[in-house]
Amino acid sequence: MTAESPAGDTPESVLLDEPTTADLRAKVTEAWREFASALAGMLSSLPSGAQIDLTLDPTASGTGAAVYSVSIRVLPAGVLEALAVGNAALPAEYRMDRATVAEMVALGWSPPGVLAGSRDAFGLRSEQSKATAVAATISRTLRDIYGAPHPAFLVYLVHDEEDEPIEAGPLATARLEAGLELVGADGAELTDEELLAEVAGDEVPLDERVRTVIATMSKTTVDQLQVDADGDIGIRAGSAMVFVRVRDNPPLVDVFSPILTEVEPTEQLYVKLSELTNRMPIGRLYCAQDTVWASIPVFGRNFQAVHLMLAVQVMTGLADELDDRLHGEFGGKRFFGEGDKPTPPKNGDDHRTGMYL
């Protein structure tokens, strides 16, 4: 079965169908666009015998023993063959129901065993000249069927028939198993092995591992990080401030931001926050007394540096956008919003819960 692309469709239009009004999902949507485009480019240029293995990190997805993966192989004469994990390889509690299987078929996959050699996996066969459509199908499968929240939670490996690695370039924000390229404080490339060597292992306290990751992202040293009296690491994001806090019991890293302070907690505000939270790919928004907070938790047990990196990247972008949007609608004070007018508190009470302002 081949995945056809309607004439004139771009990789973005084939892949995406969310309404453009879903502002909080825009960054994730763009990340999937970039991933689909990069995957299409890679598929169209790989030689015969090459294979790409894409896997959703179980730690990120919270699926435990369930491993969701897609493998794409380049056959002779420019034929692409893809296999996607089916129910036979999944624990009982994570198996797809009939409706989900139907969605897989609607995306272009043949049911397990239909494509020659597919055995227990869903199969798809197409051509390298149609790599854009194939990439869109695979991206939607990973995102919509397997539940990958962001391409950064994908790991990939490109290899030949002898399982020898092939240099094939990056796949947007997906992680190459052999080494994630980061930039260190000195501007030099830092592989994931070098970073994780510093932050891995239970013998290294969680707060030290977190500070190493944040310092690496900020291109600075641990000693130069902005840390307040509570031990929270501060990161400025435009008119917003993002904090990273390490909790011991249970082990957790909270990436959070006081979006607005001195705001009146009305029913309209609660409805808005609920709607926005439902659109967020990860994290939540809530109001505690007169402060609107955004929070993205990262598990401290089996800590993964890339999960913290993604949480910080998402939060810094969203906080700087959300404080402006919500301030325009509900008033209050932004963290770095000079001249902001606070909403008059109810009953003349001037109590403030913006503990960082």
From TrEMBL:
Residues 206-337 form the TY-Chap central domain. This is YbjN domain-containing protein. Residues 1-20, 333-357 are annotated as: Disordered. SUPFAM superfamilies: Type III secretory system chaperone-like (SSF69635). Pfam families: TY-Chap1 (PF22551), TY-Chap3 (PF22552). Residues 30-154 form the TY-Chap N-terminal domain.
